[in-house]
Structure formats: structure tokens, C-alpha cells
Amino acid sequence: MNVGSHRRVIVAVSAGVFIGTYDVAAISVALPKVVQIWHVSPADMALLGSSAFIGMMLGSMVAGFAADYVGRRLILLVDFLAYGIASVLSAVSPNLMWLILSRMIVGFAVGAEYAVVFPYLVEYIGQRDRGRIMAWALWAANFGMLFAYGLGALTINYPGGWRIPLAFGALLVVPILWWRRFLPESLEWASHRASSWRDVIHILSVPQYRNIVSVSALTWLSYQVSDQGLTIFLPWMFVSIFGTSISLAAWHSVIVKAVTIPAALITVWMIDRVGRRPLQLWGFWGRAAALLLLGTLLLAIHGNIGHHQNLVGVAWVLLVLAYAAGAVGPDKTTVITTAERMPTEIRASAQAIAESSGRLGGIVGVLGYSFLSALWGPGAGLIFFGAMAAIGTILTWSFLPETQHIAIYAYQENSRCREGQRVRVKKSAKRP
Q: Where are the transmembrane segments (predicted)?
């Protein structure tokens, strides 16, 4: 396969990450308007905000196990087709229940995508470049959210304008599906696939791999509580904390999210130089510190930042720092390290379990912020986010090894090789 074809494959696969993050941000832009026009209760708002994450949990589990049995390529085609159909259904929703159900279907497709994209990239890309290329893919995800916020800001004040960002996701699917029809199957999977579902379960049950998956799942959950919670509620925070209008809140969200673009470039530059573990550790620590300080500040002034203009700048800086810290570290590394640490036969299944835990974290974040902010104000919700990021710091410090030098490998019964010292798998075919 020539260099041009190699790059097209990487772009076609990585584009799914862009669209998945675009979709999560699209509903966050629409949320304040939907709450306003349909008079949505706090409980229903929490259900709408978490509906996509419920779908992602299910989609990741189904797709991950299926990808280890039927292959990566088929899942990467089917999930995008389902996403496009569900995006249209979301955009034409006549009522709240329709919107919630269609958002669950959208989430199912996005969850399936994330469960398979990174195992595929780990197997397709050489060890020397995989960290940098996967970081590039996740860097593009920041533009997905930024694009959704910007499109929402431009359309939200038009009649039915909140539907436009939801519908636009379906348009994005068309060129990606066209490119993906040329995707090759993963040669790593074809050479070392599990022979049955029972084999997948058997390998996952090996204590070594069970422990890796458990730690990865908990770390991913601890990050996604704050990350998905902030993503869903960022425009709403500007409305409730800073007292801005709905359209201005979308523009402010664009500004805050834009900070993650250069921050994530640091990851691209450093991930194969300093490794995954230091970036994840400092990213978790920075997010925890910023959110805990911001939450404490808002509790101290009872969340009414409008009466303390001298503190508005401080609140902005802390919010930006929280986003930047996540973008530099765990936003990328929690996704990458799981796929790097597992044998080929169960790589997608393990990624699916960890991702599903992360989506559970998103649900916990949405519900936790909704109810804590309703009881004690937004400061309480942000302290909750910060506490979960602090837990991620502890888990990373205690359990995460460096993964950049781990070679792709296949499971060997009774193998005594330790992680980081495994022998490369002998290929039955050359890498394209």
C-alpha cells in the first residue's frame, strides 16, 4: 500500500472521532433551547443529557466483542450508517421522548465507533508512530466540538435553529462512508483472531488482563465524569453562572473550547517523547486542582458571579485551565493506553469495556452535576468533577505503567512474559 493510501486509511478511520465528539457537543448547544421551548424539568434535562451516553455504553460493548469475532472493518462501516440515520431522527424530533430515544441510537453508533477505531489504529500503525498518530486523531476531536459550538451559535436564534447542528451530523457521514468502503481489514486481527466467543471471554478472564481492564475502566470513568459533564453543560454553565444569553453562551463555549486546540498539540508533540503516563498524571492533577478551586469559589459566593465582577476573570482562567489540562493528558491517554496494553484477540473487547465504563462516567457526571447544582448550586457540581479527576490522579500514579514501548502481541497460553517485555507477534502477512 502506497503512502497516499496509507494516509487515506488513517484519515478515514480517524474522522469518526471528529464526528463522535461533534455529536456530543451538538446536543449541548441545543440543550438550553430545548429546555426553554419544551419546558423541560431538571430530571428530564439530566435524562436528555445522558441519553447518548447510555447508548454509547451499549454500543461500545456490542461492537467491541463483535469486532474481535467478525472483524474491525465491518463494524467501522455499519456504525457510521446507523449514526447518519439516527442523526436525522434527532433533528426531526417532535417531542422530548422522541429526541431522547433517537439520541440513544446516536450514542449507540458513536460508542461502537470508539470501541473499534483505536484497536484498528494500534494494529494498522507501526509502534514508532502510533502514539503520535492516535494523538492527532484525538486532536481533531477538539475541532468537532468547536465546530458544533460555532454552528449552534450561528443558528440557535432562528426558528428551529437548534435542530440544525443535530441534522448536520448526518451530512458529515456521507463522505466518510464513501472513504471507508476501501478500508482493508486489520491483518493483525486476521492473523490472530479468537476462534470463538468463548475464547474471547477466556482470555479476558486471565487475571493479568482482567486487572488491566479494571484499572483502565476506572481511570477512564474518573476522567469522563468531568469531561462529558463539562461538554454537556458548558453552554448551560455560562447561562446559569455568568448570566449570559443562550446565543452568547454558545460563543463563550467556542472560546473556551478553542483553548484545547493548542493544548492538545502539546500531546501530539510530547506523547512519544515523554510517554503516556506523565501526560496523564499531570493532566488529571491540573484538572482536579482547577475544578476544585472554581467550585469552592462559586460556593463561597453562592454561585452569583455577576455580583463579583472582580472574580469573573478568575473563574474564566480556572475553567480554561481545567479544559487545557484534560486536553494535554487524560483526554488522549486514557483512550490510547487500553488498546496498547491488550493482546490482539481481545483488544476491541477490552477497549469496549473500558470505554463503556467511561460512558458510565459521562452519565454519572451529567446526573451528578444536575442534582448537586440543583441542591447547592453549580459550585457543588464542579467540586464533584474535581474530586473525580483527583481519583484519576491517584489511579494513574498507582497503577499505570508506561505503554509506548509495548509491542503488539497475541495471547499465548501459559505465557510468562510480563507487560513491557513481550515478544513481537510473527506476522503471517506484511503490514500494508
A: 9-31, 46-67, 74-92, 98-121, 133-156, 162-179, 254-272, 284-305, 311-329, 382-400
SS (H, E, C) 181-241: CCCCCCHHHHHHCCCCHHHHHHHHCCHHHHHHHHHHHHHHHHHHHHHHHHHHHHHHHHHHH
Residue 85 three-state SS: helix
Domain positions in the chain are 3-399
pLDDT of residue 17: 85
DSSP string, 118-162: HHHHHHHS-HHHHHHHHHHHHHHHHHHHHHHHHHHHHHTTSTTTT
How far, in Å, CA of 146 to CA of 144, rounded?
5
Kindly report the pTM of this predicted structure.
Answer: 0.82
Distances (CA, A) of 420 to 351, 409, 424: 19, 11, 11
Q: What's the pLDDT score for residue 15?
A: 84
Length of the chain: 432
Structure confidence at residue 145 (pLDDT): 78
**3-state DSSP helix/strand/coil percent for the chain, to nearest 5?**
80, 0, 20
The b-or-e profile of 235-248 (16+ CB within 10 A means b, else e) is: bbbbbbbeebebbe
Determine the Cα–Cα distance for residues 375 and 303; give it in Å rounded to an integer: 12
Mean pLDDT, rounded, for 383-400: 96
